[in-house]
Amino acid sequence: MPAVQETVERVKRIDVDQYRYGFETLIESDKAPKGLSEETVKFISEKKNEPAWMLQWRLEAYRRWLTMTEPTWARVDYPKIDFQDLYYYSAPKPKKTISSLDEIDPEILKTYEKLGIPLREVAMLEGVEPKVGEEDPARRKIAVDAVFDSVSVATTFKAELKKAGVIFMPISEAIREHPELVQKYLGSVVPTSDNFYATLNSAVFSDGSFVYVPPGVRCPMELSTYFRINERNTGQFERTLIIADKGSYVSYLEGCTAPQRDENQLHAAVVELVAHDDAEIKYSTVQNWYPGNSEGKGGIYNFVTKRGDCRGDRSKISWTQVETGSAITWKYPSCILRGDNSSGEFYSIAISNGYQQVDSGTKMIHLGKNTSSRIISKGIAAGKSQNTYRGLVTAHRKATGARNFTACDSLLIGDKCGAHTVPYIEAKNSSATFEHEATTSKISEDVLFYCIQRGLSQEEAVGLVVNGFVKDVLQQLPMEFAVEAQKLISISLEGSVG
Amino acid sequence: MALLEVKDLKVRVEEREILHGLTLTVNEGEVHAIMGPNGSGKSTLSHVIAGKPGYEVTDGQILFKGEDLLEMAPEERAAKGVFLAFQYPVEIPGVATMNFLRTALNAQRKARGEDEYSTPDFLKKVREVSKSLNIPQDMLKRGVNVGFSGGEKKRNEVLQMALFEPSLCILDEMDSGLDIDALRIAADGVNALRSPKRAMVVITHYQRLLNYIVPDVVHVMSKGRVVKSGGKELALELEASGYTQFEAA
Ligand SMILES: Nc1ncnc2c1ncn2[C@@H]1O[C@H](COP(=O)(O)OP(=O)(O)OP(=O)(O)O)[C@@H](O)[C@H]1O
Ligand SMILES: [Mg+2]
C-alpha cells in the first residue's frame, strides 16, 4: 500500500501536540439540529430514506436510552457529557447520491489522500484487475469504504466483490437494498438494550459498513473502512455489521482518524460480527483518533461496543487491535463462543501517552462444547496516562472442555503513568481449563542505553523496544497494516521520555 | 594524533565519587589495555565516555578528536565513532538482531549525513562479517541477544563493532565467559579491525587476552585513578604479583 507508506514517511518528527492527522477539511455540511430528541432520530432516518421498520427500531432504542444511565465502572475519568450539546448527524454537502469517485468533493478526496488512504490509486479508481503477472503483493487490493463524519462517501471495488457474491456497502444502502439481511442480523449480537452507548448508537447511527459473505466464499480481498470525524461538536456513531455465512472467510480492517480540536468529540460505535458454521472473521483495528494535546485538552472519547458471535460450529472470530489514539478509550471487543468447537481470539496493543486513559480488554463467553479462546494483550503506558486491561472469561455449565489462555503484559515508560490488570474468570463447569499470565515491567534504562550507544536516539530506542514488546500482536495484522502500525506506535510514543 | 584525551576526570554516582581525577590519552592506531581490581572504576570510565545517564562529571574533561565529548548526546558520540562493547550486553526481546543492526547502522549513517545502506549491500556486509566471526545466520534472526550464550553475546558485540567501523573501540571484559576457541575467534575479529586510524581500549582482568590482542600501552587502575602505565610487559608483571603493589593511597 504505497500511498500509506508515503504518508507515513512524510510524518517526520512531531510531538504529542502535533497530531499527525490534525487537519480540517473545509467543506459545507448538512447537519441535524443540535441535541437529541425523537425529532433528531426521525431526521436521521428520513435523511437516509429508511423504511418504516428501521425508524421504529431506532425510536425504540431512543426511548430505551432515555431510561438508562452512563456506566461508571471503568477506570476512566471525564467531565459529564452534555448529550444535548452535540450534533448527531452531519453529512458533507452536496448530498446527492454518489456513484463514482469522480463525483466526490475533491476536498474530501484530498483529505483521504492526506490520510494516506489509497482511494485514488489507479487500480482502485478504475476498478480494474491488474493484468496477469502484474500482481505485486505490496499493492494487494483492498476494498475501502470511507466514512466521512457520518456518511459513507465511497466504496471501492464494488463490482469485483459483487462477482464473488460478497456484499460490501454502506449500511445505509444495505438497509434499502438488503433489508432481509439487515433485519435478520442487526441487533442480534448487540441488542438495542445492551448498554448506554450501544443503545444511543442504535437510535442515531448514521452510517458504517455492511458485509455479507455467502456460504463457502473466501472474500477475494481485504475489506477496509476508514472513519474520520471532521465536523465540530459532532458525535460519530457508526454501525458495522459483518456476516460470514457457512464456510466463508473475510478479513476486515478499520482505521480511524479525527482532526485536532480543543473540545472533546464523542465516538460511540457498534460493531456486530456473526460467524456461521466453519466461517472465519478476522477483524483488525488501527485506531489513532486524536488523543488530546500534551495538557490533556481535547481528544476523542471512544466508547465502543464490539462483539462477535461464533454462532456456528467450528466458527472462528479473531479481533486484533492497535489502539494508540483517543483521550478516553472504553472498548471490549468480545466473542460469544456459541457453536461447538468455535474459537475466539483477542490480540491487543493499547498505547497511552500524555493524559490518555485506556480501559480496554475483551470478554470471551464460552457457551458451546470444546470452545477455545486466546487473549494476548500488550499495554504500554507512558507520560501521565492510565492503561487498564479488563477481561472476562466465562464458561457456561454446558461449555464442557472450554479452554482459555490469557497473557497480559504491561510496559511502563516513566514513573507518572499507571498500568492495571483486572481479569475476571468464571468457570461454571469443572472441565474448563483457564490459564492466566500477567506481567508488568518498566522499560529498562540499560536496554535503552544499549540502543542509544549504537546510534539510536532516545525516541527511536523507545520505539524499537516497544515494537519488540508488541511483536506477537503485530504479527497478527495484515502485512501492510503491520508496517503502518509499527510506525504509528513509534510516533505515538514520541515525547514520552526524558 | 590524540584520539581520546581524558583529563583529570572526576565522576560521581549517587553522591559517591567513583573516579577521582583520572587521566588517560589514547592516540590513533594504538591499543591500550586497562587492568585493575573489581570496583576500581573501569566500567564507570567506559560508561562516562559512551555517555550513559546517571553519572555526574564534577571535574575534568574528555576530548574526542579534539572535541568536547561531554557536550555530545550519546547517540551523537556513537555516530562520531565511539563504540562500547558492553561487559553485560542486554537482551531486546522481539527485535530481530538483523533488524537491530540495520536500524542502528542506518541511524549512524544518517547522523553523519551519509546515505542509508541498500538492503543487498547491507546483507552482503553482515554476511561477510558474521562469517568471519563464526556467527550463524540463524542467530541474526533471533531477538537481540535473546537466548544467546555468554560467548555468543560477546561475539555479537564484536560483530557490531566490525559493522559500524568506529574509530574508538572500548571493549569491557570481552574475554569474560569465552572459551578458548571463542576467545581466539573474537580476538581475531578485533585484531582485524586494528588500523592506523582506529584506537582500542581493552578492559580486562586477564593477561591471556593480551596474548591475542597485543597492547601498545597497559594501564593499571585502582580506586578511580590510573596509578601506573607501561608497555605490554606490565600485564605480565601484574599476573605474577597482583595489584597490591599498585594500590593507591
Ligand atoms: N549505579 C551505581 N550506583 C552506585 N554505585 C555504583 C554504580 N555504578 C558503579 N558503582 C560503584 O562504582 C565502583 C566502580 O564500579 P565499576 O563497575 O566501574 O568497577 P569495575 O572496575 O568495572 O569493576 P569490575 O572489574 O568488577 O567490572 C564500584 O564500587 C561500584 O559499586
Ligand atoms: Mg566492570
TrEMBL record, chain A:
GO terms for biological process: iron-sulfur cluster assembly. InterPro entries: Fe-S_cluster_assembly_SufBD, SUF_FeS_clus_asmbl_SufB, SUF_FeS_clus_asmbl_SufBD_core, SUF_FeS_clus_asmbl_SufBD_sf, SufBD_N. Pfam families: SUFBD_core (PF01458), SufBD_N (PF19295). SUPFAM superfamilies: Stabilizer of iron transporter SufD. Residues 162-218 form the SUF system FeS cluster assembly SufBD N-terminal domain. Residues 227-469 form the SUF system FeS cluster assembly SufBD core domain. Belongs to the iron-sulfur cluster assembly SufBD family. This is Fe-S cluster assembly protein SufB. It comes from Bradyrhizobium niftali.
